[in-house]
Amino acid sequence: MASIEIVASDVESAIEQGLAQLGLMRAEVKIEILEEGSRGVLRLGSRQCKVRLTPWDDLPADSAEGDGQSGEAADGDEQGDDAEYEEGDEGEYEDEDDEEEDDEEEEDEDGEPEPVIEGEGLAVEITQTILENMGFRRAQAYGRSLLPMDDADQPSIVVEVDVEDRDEEAFLAHNAEGLNALQTLVQTMWSHQTKSNVRVNVDINGFKAQKQETLASMARRMAERVIETGRAVTLDPMNGADRRIVHMTLREFPGVYTESSGEGASRKVQIKPSAA
């Protein structure tokens, strides 16, 4: 797959268009800004920007070194990243995961139910009521709770909705505007009643789950690149749900481990080679 050059009014728009054409995620391409562009004054003298997107798989391993977007970190950078962690922090995520995994296994062996976030049933009830009032009487909503995976992560409730194929388009057309509107409505009503800031995510016929699988596939490809090159990869900033997917996907992946770094919206996942 050859590199492509995109011209647009701003850099982000150009990158998004290029990713859509390549069918790849930001972490899977090398991004070069060829022309910054300019807005001009009162729209006079404005110039569009130009970017080049090249899939990492089409580049030799050495060319990825030092890229600032989402490629592998050079050896010096990797040491700098490690230096940011206080003593005892390195590998913290793996230790937490191991403890959580052990707890889950003990719960399964004892036959105890998985933890449920308070208000999960209410989120399902609200979603079901909205769908029925909208005329989707055959839709069925189910709930599950996601507990935090690290200190910066937040608990969330997932409401999965099954609808008939003929009704799916009403929610997923125009970049899933209907699904986004439903989630906003559910979140608003649920937060108003519970006075809680827990995130409620609504999915329709596994639409978001499929996107999550795409993210998981990307994480596995990046892990293979880390093993091949011996260099760490720092992914773009992600929300807690997406970071969870990467961590969970690579938890048992041989030869690599994951760590989160950064704060708030800038928090990222690093994929690092395991010590031999």
Give an overview of the whole structure.
- The protein is α+β, with helices and mostly antiparallel strands and 276 residues long.
- It folds into 3 domains: 4-59, no CATH class; 73-84 and 210-276, Ribosomal Protein S8, Chain: A, domain 1; 120-205, GMP Synthetase, Chain A, domain 3 (2-Layer Sandwich), CATH 3.30.300.
- Helix content is 43%, strand content 19%.
- It is built from 7 helices and 9 strands, in the order E-H-E-E-H-H-H-E-E-H-E-H-E-H-E-E.
- The chain has a 3-stranded antiparallel sheet, covered by helices on one side. A 3-stranded mixed sheet has the order 4-5-6, with helices on both faces.
Q: Major beta sheet, specifics?
A: 3 strands, antiparallel
- List the helices and strands in order: EHEEHHHEEHEHEHEE
Number of strand elements: 9
**Which class of the largest domain in CATH terms?**
Alpha Beta
> Roughly what percent helix?
40-55%
For the record, the CATH architecture of the largest domain stands as 2-Layer Sandwich
Please report the number of helical segments: 7
Global shape: globular
Named CATH topology of the largest domain: GMP Synthetase, Chain A, domain 3
Radius of gyration: 22 Å
What value does the average pLDDT take?
77
- Looking across the biggest beta sheet, what order are the strands in? 1-3-2
Report the sheet-strand fraction.
15-25%
* Structural class by helix and strand composition: alpha+beta
Low-confidence stretches: 40-45, 64-109
- Straight-line distance between termini: 33 Å
The domain count comes to 3
